[in-house]
Each structure stands twice: as structure tokens, then as C-alpha cells.
Write a structure and sequence with these properties.
The structure holds 3 protein chains of 3 kinds. Chain A is 73% helix and 4% strand. By secondary structure, chain A is mainly α. By secondary structure, chain B is mostly helical. Chain B is built from 11 helices and no strands. Chain C is of the alpha+beta class. Chain C folds into 2 domains: 176 residues, Rossmann fold (3-Layer(aba) Sandwich); 125 residues, Beta Barrel (OB fold (Dihydrolipoamide Acetyltransferase, E2P)). Helix content of chain C is 23%, strand content 33%. Chain C contains 9 helices and 20 strands. Chain C has a 6-stranded mixed β-sheet, sandwiched between helices. The two termini of chain C are 29 Å apart. The chains are: A mainly alpha, B mainly alpha, C alpha+beta. Chains in contact: A-B, A-C, B-C. At the A-B interface, helix 1, helix 3, helix 4, helix 5 and helix 7 of A face helix 1, helix 3, helix 4, helix 5 and helix 6 of B.
Chain lengths: 304, 273, 384
Amino acid sequence: MKGKAERDRLALGRLLLIGVPFAWLGLFFLLPFTIVLKLSLSEPALAQPPYLPIVEWVEEAGELYLAIRLRVQNYLTLVGDGLYLAAFASSLRIAATATVLALLVAFPIALGMARCPPRVRPFLLLAVMLPFWTSFLIRVYAWMGILKDDGLLNALLLTLGLIEEPLVILNTETAVLIGIVYSYLPFMILPIFANLEKHDPSLLEAAVDLGCRPIVAFWRITVPLARPGILAGCFLVFIPAVGEFVIPDLLGGADTLMIGRTLWLEFFTNRDWPLASAVAIAMLLLLVVPIVFFLRLQALGRLR
Amino acid sequence: MRRGPGPFDLAALTLGFAFLYLPIVILVVFSFNASKLVTVWGGFSLRWYEAVLTNEQLLDAARVSLGVAFVTATAALVLGTMAGLVLVRIQHFPGKALFTGMVVAPLVMPEVITGLSLLLLFVSLDVPRGFWTVTIAHTTFATCYVAVVVQARLLTFDRSLEEAAMDLGAPPLRTFRLVTLPLIAPSLAGGWLLAFALSLDDLVIASFTTGPGATTLPMRIYGQARLGVTPEINAVCTMLVALVTIVVLVISILQKRRLARERIGPGPAGRNP
Amino acid sequence: MTTARPVREARPRIEPWQDPDAVPFVRIQGVTKTFGEVYAVDNVTLDIFKGEFFALLGPSGCGKSTLLRILAGLERPTSGRVLIDGQDMTDVPPWRRPVNMMFQSYALFPHLSVRKNIAFGLEQERLPRAEIAERVAEVVRLVHLEGLEDRKPDQLSGGQKQRVALARALVKRPKVLLLDEPLGALDKKLRDQTQLELVNIQDRLGLTFVIVTHDQEEAMTVGSRMAIMREGQIAQIGTPSEIYEYPASRFVAEFVGEVNLIEARFASVNGTTMRVRAPALGIEIVTDRPVPALPGEPLWVAVRPEKMSIAKTPPAETGYNCVEGEVFDIEYLGDVSVYHVRLDNGLFLRATEANKLRLIERPITWEDRVWLSWGPDASVVLKT
């Protein structure tokens, strides 16, 4: 029957439509995670690859055993060695500080954009997005030339006579903060702008009409209404900043501990793959709460 | 919002955009510096561009990066469009929640974790690492970005257009080709570009998943940047920035034109109602 | 819709539903459609004949649109069958059905010109290009879209879009044309005019139309017959006059037109005359359409306001179908006035009178004592 064959073809098409991306993501996203989890419980070794299997057939006294060796030491090291805890703590601190700074920089810009005539707004939006499209690495690199001891910022300050000798900014936490704020600024501006743009101007007029001074109206009307945009922006900056590697590596100093960089060093320099995996799992656990919060916020926004 | 920006708004915009653009402008300017010192202007010169264009290592890396980005963008467009369609159009199937999670999670996953996990997969499967492992890794996270772009477009898509096409005799696949595809094409183009840009930009995931002979451009730039600022890297960066800027601008202009044309229409007849 | 009457009267009277040998063209047999726990369409059986302009009427959410989408194949019934021209269509996908739909939103393809929109369906049939062009030109003339063929949909007015949507469906020469609230987006004047155009086109082409609407005037203007739907079920099927004059339930009586509903109890039947008592009014009501009922069974009597006579003097016979009261309010609507009469027990009845005299010359005014009376043919006894 023609109808049956056609229905079968449609069912097959549907199966393919679901199956292909499902299989891809399962194979290249989900499966790798289970491997990280497995590896975080295995023993490092001077071998290729540099770890021992956790499941093994063992013959003992002529009898065959399936031995599972889970090495909890990797996690104990994370907790026991102050270095890792410090890295986690400073990652959170730096990410949180950078998020607040980015909010302070981004809000006036977003507000200014939203107050521009609608005709101009798409161009401003494009102007905010453009740096986002250019390479992340390049934007971080650009700051190296500005912040280093004999860099442009110091040259400028010295010429103006504001300082006597060059400031040390590069390879400090300050440089890392500048780098994060700069790199993630578009992510903070966009959701806030998208929110502010939708505000009804008559709300502020009504507030003023009811006897509010403009500055009070701003605090009591605009800021509370912008809350979803502000929260979205903060999560969009905070979450990736915690795991950031490039910025602390290029702009930070040897003493700037951040967890993404620790993982990198553990993996590439110390070649301790199991410990690096444990760091990854711990970082994920740390980020689960803000990530879930963020996703729920997004889902709520979509419902509205 | 209040009509018209006040002086405070104009100041915020000026300072804000200066902050966003000055570092890039400085980078571009010093790529034309004749002096090797990054802070001292030694006159205009193209010598660093010449140096870049004769630097085989950099050119190789650029070729690898463009190749990876092209394959990635194309594969991610196909996979991401499929995933976006599944997210919006198929209401229930076993594993839908898992599917949704797998599409969204890579977007917020720290790059170091994604990179590490994929490398461990390739090691476990004993896959030789190189061009294709980087491409697979990039395709995986770019797919998720494309899926989100396509999903956003489909959520505002008027389904009755597809129903009308089917009602007029077009089976589902032809309906997709004749109605859905042309209408979501601008979003697909945007998704492709996004995937291309993300792939071209990535350092961390590529560093984990690459192998001998497949060093990407960001990896080269990173390697040299770690040793300090050089005008040669400034020149490479300037070329990349110029490329991206031109592409993004051309696309925005084309899209604006298209919108304008559709609104005004051909000939004087288009002006009335 | 008074302007519609001449057109309707001019049409030949085809009433295949009266002919026991006529074969229905569209048969909906026991169709049910559930969405989760909700019964959108609940065991509907309906026959539509060739050449009919059939209207599905009901409040929003009554399942009329779902039923139409089942006819189009856009929804699969949970159970039941759909036959069109003798063929079982239940499992046939929309793109293989000989029916076409005019969508409520028009669903014009925004990236295609008017011409390409109209030609879309014919191109799916892989017809020769010349034939497509010819048929498109023909239908463009039919719906008066000449000169707009190269426009894009967003360069058209609402009325023009509506005609493109109609042309796009008509050009396929469907066995059944489905119209989902086709005129909802138009303003009142344009809607009235388009209703007549639709009837004319349907008449001229001899096609079968099924229209979904929530507007009872529209259904009565265009429909040869109509089905009133409520909560997924069909409340009544009939010609517009049958439904208006003899509603089958209080729901239908109230949904189509205005009505006075009087609670009553069965008294007696004598040949073609039925008597009921209305205890609240303290009167007897006589009707010439008896319904089977048990003694004392609670019933309702429906009387249309325009069938009630209002007078300052009692009618010749005051024993039945007559109540006395006081004019409480008068709604002046231009062509007619509605008199709200307060009975002595506090109940209200409405009577509508055509304003043949000017306002100041009317004999009845506020607070007048009046008698309302109506004939046995005006009272319809309802059991539900």
C-alpha cells in the first residue's frame, strides 16, 4: 500500500531526525563525561596513556577475580592540599568581583543604548556585538600590550606625570579582573539592554506624575523591572569566568590561582590525568547550582 | 525608556564604546609600527605583515584553522538544525529531557572540561588525534549554539504556513524545503557564521584534542603571546579582526537591505495599502 | 443580515438532506479527538452533501476548528472515520486529500508573491506550466486580484490577503473547501460584503464548502445548513431557519439569537396541541409542536422576543400564552426597540417591536401596564 509505505518513510525520517543529533551528542558529550568520572577515580601512572584501568581481571591463587580499584585519593588530595581549595576559592572570588564590576560598567551603557531613538539602537547593538565576534584570544592579547610594565598605559601615565614609576598591573589579579570584565562585557550588556528596551516609558512618567523624583523613580521602577536582565547577565559572566583559563594564564601572574588554569597545568604540565579529571568533576559540582539557576531563569523568561 | 539620551547617557555610551574598542584599535595601529617596540611609534610600515605572510608556521596554522572552522560550521549547521527542529517540533519522545539537557549543557560548560573530556574519549577509543578530532570537538559544541539559534527562530515560526503547504499538496520534506527552509534561512546563515567564528576562536578545546601536525591559529598565537607582545602577532590579529568585521558588517547590511526590500516591494504598485 | 436575503432566495433550493436516497459527500462517523484528558471532539457523526455550504457554529473551544482540521487531515482522529466522496480519508495525510483549507491567519507564504502563492498547490501536482498560469489567471479574475499578482503578502491589505488565501485554495479545485473563521480579521462592512461574495463563488462553482465560525449571523447568511457545537459534541443540525425557529435545546436557543426561556411543567397533549403550566407566571402555555413528556416533567418554553406582541390592552383571549406586566426599560436600537417587561412576580420578559413609527409617536412608554402575548406556533417546548 502506498499509504503504508509513506507512513513508514515518515516514521523513519522522524527517527533519523531525533537519532542523528542524539547519537552525536551522546557519543561526544555524554560519554566523555562518564570517562572523566571514571578517570577521576583511577591511579596515575608513568605510561601511555598515563593512568591505570580501574576494572581489571586479576588472577590470585589460581582463581580469577574481577577487581575494581577506585582511587579516592584524587579527591582527598583536592580537599587535603590547600592549593586546590585556594584555587577554587580564588576562582569564585575573582569571578564574583569581575561580575559585579562588569555589571557596574554595563548597566549605564545598556541604559544609554535603551534611551537612544529606536532607529539608532540596531547599530549600537551591532557595535556591542562586533567585539564578541572577533577572537577572544585577540582581545585578551590586546590588553597585554596595554598593561605591561613598559606598556601603553604606563607610558601614558608617566607622560602625564601622574606616576613616578611604572605600575605593575600585568601578571596581577587586577589585570585578570580587567580582562574578564572586558571580554565578557557584551554578555552583560545584551540581556540588560534587551530588558530595558521593553520598558514602557509611561511607567516613569506615571511615577514622576505621582510625585517621584526622577532618581527615585529610576531606583524604584527601572532597576526592579530590569532584574531578570541583570540576573541573566550576571550568570552569563559568572559561570564562564569561574572556569576561565586564557585570561588568568595570559594576564595573571604565577600566583593568580584559578581552577581552570589549575586543571590545565595538572593535565599538561604534571601529566596527572586522574587528578585533572577530579578537578573537572569538582568544578562541575561547583557550577551546577548557578547553571541550574540560570537555566530555570531562562525557562521562566521563555514562558513569559 | 525616556525619550532621547541625556548627557549622562551619552557619556556612558562614549566611555563604554571607547573601552570596548580602544584596545583593538591600539592593537591594529601598532601592527603598522615600524619599530619592534610595542610602545614606541617608529613610523608606518607593513614589514610585520610581510613577516606574517612568509611565516610558514603561521600560514599552516591559519590553513588548519580555516579548514576546521569550515567543516565544523557546515556539520554543526546540519546537526544543529536537526536538533533545533527536534527541540521545537517533536513534543514527546523517550529521552527528550536528556536530549534537551545535552543541547543546553555544552553552552555553559567550562571549556577546559569539554576539552579534557573529549581528549579522554579519543584516548580511550585510541583515535589518532589531529585535524579530525579537533573538528569533531568543535562540531559538538558549535552544534549546540546552532541548535539554540534555530530553536529561537522556530519558536516564532507560524506553523499554519507549513500546514497550508501540506494542505496544498506538499509532503513534509518538500514543505520543509519550499516553506520552512527559505523562511529560516537568515537564521541558518547566522548559525553557520556563529559556528565558524566559535571554531576559529577556540584555543582551549583545540589544545586538548589536537595532535601532531594540526596546530590551529589560536594555538600559535597563544604560544607566541605567552612569550610576550610582538608586532607580528599584532599583524595576524589585525588581519583576523578585519576579516571578521568585514563579514559581519556585510551580512548585517545585506539583511537590512533584504528587510527593506521586502517592506517596500518592487515598483510603484508596492507603495499603496 | 437583511441584505443577504435576496441572494439566498435566488438560489435554487437544493435540499439533498430531505432526499432519503441522496448519498452524503462528506461523512464524519463517530469521530473523537482527545488532547490528553480533554475531549476536543466527542463522538461526532455528521453528513454533508455535495454542493452544500455547511457551517460549523459554536462558542470558542467547542471543537469546531478541530473538526475542520480533522477534515483537512491536519489532525488525526483518536477514533472514528472520515469519508469524502465515498473514500476513507481517515489515514490519508493532508497532502493527498482532495480538500483545501483557507486558514484563519490566511497563512500566506511571506517569501512568495501572490502569483507564486496561488500557484503553489498546482506546482505540487506537477501540472504543465502553461496550465498553471492559465488556472492562476482564471482564479485571480474570479476573486478580483488583477494587478496584484507580483506583490508580496505583506504589501496587501487584510481584504486582499483574504482573497489570495481563498484563491490559493480554490485554484486546486478541491472536492471540499474548508474555511476556518475566514472573515474574522475583516471589519464589519467588508465582512458582510465578502460573505455574499463567498456565497456567489460557491454557487457559481458548485463546490462543497465547510465553514467554521463563531458568528451566528455569518453562519446563517452563508450556510445552507449548520451544525451547532458545544463541548465537542453536536447540539443540533439543521437549516438556519430550522435552528432558529425550532431550537432543540436551551443552549441552541440562547446561542442563536435572543430568546425568552420560561420554566414549565407538562400538563396535557391533545392531538397537535400541547399544554404546559408555567407556575412562576401562573399561566398555561399552548404550543402546536408537542414533545413526548411525562406528567409533571420539568420543561422549558422558548419564545423569541420578536414573536411576542406587546399591547396596552389585553388580547381577545387571556387564558393562555399571555402575561401582564410593566414596561421596565426600552432599548432603542434604531430599526427595532426591545421592551423589557417586569412581570408582577419580578421575572423579566423581552419583546422586540419594529420601529415603524418614530420615537415620539410610539404608544408604549416606561412604566406602562402592558400585555405580552404570542401564538401557539411561537412557543417551542424544550426538554434540556
